[in-house]
Each structure stands twice: as structure tokens, then as C-alpha cells.
Automatic annotation (TrEMBL):
The keyword Oxidoreductase applies. Pfam families: PDH_N (PF02153), TYRAAT1_C (PF26213). InterPro entries: NAD(P)-bd_dom_sf, PDH_N, Prephen_DH, TYRAAT1/2, TYRAAT2_C. GO terms for biological process: tyrosine biosynthetic process. This is Arogenate dehydrogenase 1, chloroplastic-like isoform X1. It comes from Phoenix dactylifera (Date palm). Gene3D superfamilies: NAD(P)-binding Rossmann-like Domain. Residues 15-270 form the Prephenate/arogenate dehydrogenase domain. It comes from the Eukaryota. Keywords: Oxidoreductase. GO terms for molecular function: arogenate dehydrogenase (NADP+) activity; NAD+ binding; prephenate dehydrogenase (NAD+) activity; prephenate dehydrogenase (NADP+) activity.
Length: 270
């Protein structure tokens, strides 16, 4: 597996990328962006000026200053629940067109609709979901999927240059609609997080006789509860397909429970 430390600059030259929201996931992406030679600026609610200085990134405490510094790509790395407030806080009058707005949220229809509604018509929109993070991508991104939709793209060279960051790292590029992404995510990511949260609520613990299956459940619990409850809530609130999966889960549990109790009655009668 290729390590991100082997990154080389893209042939089309460095991009100027302004990151809004510099939490752990943004930091994870930024390290590879910098290694490829891209020029980064960032802003966030918390003060990451020292960390950014260590990474070679210019940090701005003020959103206006970030916009004044200019950039080709605005990368939105906020939480799902805070995206609306963050977008509306951007000083649109200071934007220097043309611009490519890119999000990395774990839901896709919600940011797509919001960006198309709020951003200036002149701005391009690319919705992405890197299906990996600091843990799964720590040895490199080779073979890991990047899901994306070119929502409103006129500067195709700029968009392709940005996507080239992930291609250069060996990512598996998966182009699909935001709706298709959310349908699949509700059946996979949301359910996985739901099971993990349920297991955490049950307080399951390792035992001296754990099976491989139970060890997998412990791993699922640990992996999902590392993420904030806000992320889990966002996967539900901002994905219209999640509620029906939650309802299906509820019905499935009741069906299994009823079958188990019915069989128990049959056994007891004999």
C-alpha cells in the first residue's frame, strides 16, 4: 500500500485551497495536500494557528481575512449540523470568482441543496465523501474510495485538478449522484453507527471466551463511538433515507424477538 509520504506534486501545478473547519478530518486531509505541494489557508472556531504553522498552512481567525487571502478551492470541513450556519457566515461579497466549493460531509443531498441555494451562481460545486479517515487512511489512501458528484462545474480543469489529488494517492474514484450516495449510506454507514451505539448502550465487554463474531462487534462499537454523537445525529437528521432504515431495524428486531418467543413457547410445551 502506498504511503501518503510518497506524495509528489501534481503535474498541473499547486492549487490554492482555503479550508473552513480545521478539525481532525481536515487536518488529516491537509497533511497530504501539503505533501503534494498545494498552498493551504484555513480558518476554524478553535485556534489552530500553532498547528497550521507547523504544517506550513496560513491560519486566519477571521473568515473575512480568509476570503481576502483568495484561493481557487473552498473546502468545507465542518460538521453536518453546523454547515448551514457556516455557509451563511461566509462574506459572499468578498469571494473572488470563479471558485470551486467542495464539501466532505458524510451526507450528500443536504450540502448539495444548501450550496446551490446559498452560493453565488458563478461558483462551482463539487460534492465529495472520502470513505476513509485518519485511522483507515493512516498507511496511505491507495485503493480507498472517494465518492463524488460534479454538481455544478464549468471550470472542468480546476475540478479535475482537485480530484487529481485523490487520484495521485491511488484512491478508487466513485462518481455517483448525491441521492444514490445517501440511499447507500443509510443502508451501510448509518446502520453500522446505529448498531455500534446500541452495543455501547448495552455495555458489552470482552470475555475470556470471545468468538470472532463477538470481537467484530466490539470493534464495531469502538470504531463508531470514536465519532461524536453529533456526527451520528447528522447522519440521521440530514439523510432522508435514514429514518426508513431505522424503522426497518425496529420492525426486524420485533420480528426476530417474536419468532424467538414463539419457538420458546413450543419448546416449553414439549
Amino acid at each position: 500500500m502506498a504511503s501518503s509520504s510518497s506524495s509528489t506534486p501534481l503535474p498541473n501545478g499547486p492549487l490554492k485551497i482555503a479550508i473552513i473547519g480545521f478539525g481532525p478530518f481536515a487536518q488529516f486531509l491537509a497533511k497530504t495536500f501539503v505533501k503534494q505541494g498545494h498552498i493551504l489557508t484555513a480558518t476554524s472556531r478553535s485556534d489552530y494557528s500553532l498547528l497550521c504553522s507547523q504544517l506550513g498552512i496560513t491560519f486566519f481567525r477571521d473568515m473575512d481575512d480568509l476570503m481576502e487571502a483568495g484561493g481557487q478551492v473552498i473546502l468545507l470541513c465542518t460538521s453536518i449540523l453546523s454547515l448551514g450556519d457556516v455557509i451563511r457566515s461566509i462574506p459572499m461579497g468578498r469571494l473572488r470568482m470563479p471558485l470551486l466549493f467542495v464539501d466532505v460531509l458524510s451526507v450528500k443531498e443536504y450540502p448539495r441543496d444548501l450550496l446551490l441555494r446559498v452560493l453565488p451562481e458563478e461558483s462551482d460545486v463539487l460534492c465529495t465523501h472520502p470513505m476513509f479517515g485518519p485511522e483507515s487512511g493512516k498507511e496511505g489512501w491507495n485503493g480507498l474510495p472517494l465518492v463524488y458528484e460534479k454538481v455544478r462545474i464549468r471550470d472542468h480543469a480546476l475540478c479535475d485538478n482537485y480530484l487529481g489529488i485523490f487520484q495521485a494517492e491511488g484512491c478508487r474514484m466513485v462518481e455517483m449522484s448525491c441521492q444514490e450516495h445517501d440511499e447507500m449510506a443509510a443502508k451501510s454507514q448509518f446502520l453500522a453507527h446505529t448498531f455500534g451505539r446500541i452495543l455501547a448502550e448495552m455495555g458489552i465487554k470482552p470475555t475470556p471466551m470471545d468468538t470472532k463474531g463477538f470481537q467484530a462487534l466490539l470493534q464495531l462499537r469502538d470504531n463508531t463511538t470514536k465519532d461524536s454523537f453529533d456526527l451520528y445525529c447528522g447522519l440521521f437528521v440530514r439523510n432522508k433515507f435514514a429514518r426508513q432504515e431505522l424503522d426497518k431495524l425496529d420492525l426486524a428486531f420485533k420480528a426476530v424477538r417474536e419468532k424467538l418467543l414463539e419457538r420458546t413457547k413450543d419448546v416449553e410445551l414439549h
